[in-house]
# Entry
Amino acid sequence: MNHGLTRRRFLCTMSAGAAGIGLAAGAASCAVQSGSMGEKPAILGGKPVRTEPFPSWPVVKENDEKGWMEVLRGKDWCRSSDGHFATQFEETWAKTLGAKYCVVTSCGTTALYASLNALGVGPGDEVILPPYTFVATLNVILMQYALPVFVDSDRETLQIDARKIEAKLTARTRCIMPVHLGGNPVNMDVVLEVAKKHKLPVIEDACQAHTGEWRKRRVSTLGDLGCFSFQASKNLNSGEGGAILTNDPALHEFCKSFQNQGRGPAGAAFQYARQGSNLRMTEFQAALLLQQLTRVEEQSRAREQNAQYLTSLLRQIPGISPARMYEGTTRNGYHLYMLRYDKAHFADLPRARFLEALEKEGIPCAGGYTPLNKEPFLKELLNSRVYRTIYSGPEIAAWEERNACPENDKLCEEAVWFFQEMLLGPRRDMDDIAEAIRKIQKHAGELV
Ligand SMILES: Cc1ncc(COP(=O)(O)O)c(C=O)c1O
# Structure
């Protein structure tokens, strides 16, 4: 397919653009005008919808090199107590999000780990989490020898079903850990109401939600603590990195000390206020983050506009359901563009085959997570010697029964993801995604 601005594509883009927010009419006309629909699917040897790559990630510019070289030549590579770049990034990121305090860490996992320690979560405690998340959310709970308690997913939003949290609480629940997965905010009205009613702290896992907003407040600032990841794939990235946000001075003091081997506020080399660990971010990471931060807003706006347009196109395809946002969402961070695929509208074409066909059309995609609550390693760990020292056999058996998440099981079979960098290019890239899906749908019978 020619990726120059063909007349068909020009008309298609213009009609959608002119419609602004009411994009549906433009999208419909694109579907009718689409040129490659008659083509054989690429997986059967036809011409792919797209041969051009999507934008690459990360974006590297001159200012990144400048920041990096400043650290290199300055020779203060470790933040030790008060690294210049780490402190500057903490202040800037807290201000950007509207939080009082920020503590940077080596990665998102260590940000969550420090947060659980700040709340004193330990053996015998239960922590609420979704089953549809990256394994790190679970791993940090297990690092504390606490019990993860999974609350089923809301398939429409692909988020924790906050209405089901209360039923999972027990006298042992110590903390609620919602995850704003893919950047799409969790229903924080419900989470905060339940937390308040039961006097439970909330750690927001905002590792994928750098610009997400709930009722005009940035996610990570709504609970007691909020955590970010700056790992390579993330929308704000320094290869690895993490941050904890809080408005509570005591939690801030704890996290700052904990990530620096338990040193006191002055950071004196051999004086310790508590047990801690080395979770420090390097000055290189912080300098890079300060530079990457200069383009986060512009990139996020581009993703939001493209995602909105893509949703208008995909909503018209039977069997494709883009992730819904809760009414309180004022901004989606779009680390992922997520949807559900219903094979009944694709001649029963299995999702794996659909994904394969989509890749062959030049559209990178993934099927996403498997059910975390059913991970074999989890079952093994809960029956290990260490866990059995803390929890009895009947307790573990009861845990297994409480942790069925049938909606999530279905979700894990129907989810489809596109990646954040795919939303950074021109609007016509979205037309390609929709066109490839329509093409596969048209030929689904031949692909089964
Ligand atoms: C939802 C979620 N939580 C936690 C993490 C852990 O972050 P990191 O990889 O920086 O340790 C990630 C990273 O992918 C994540 O997506």
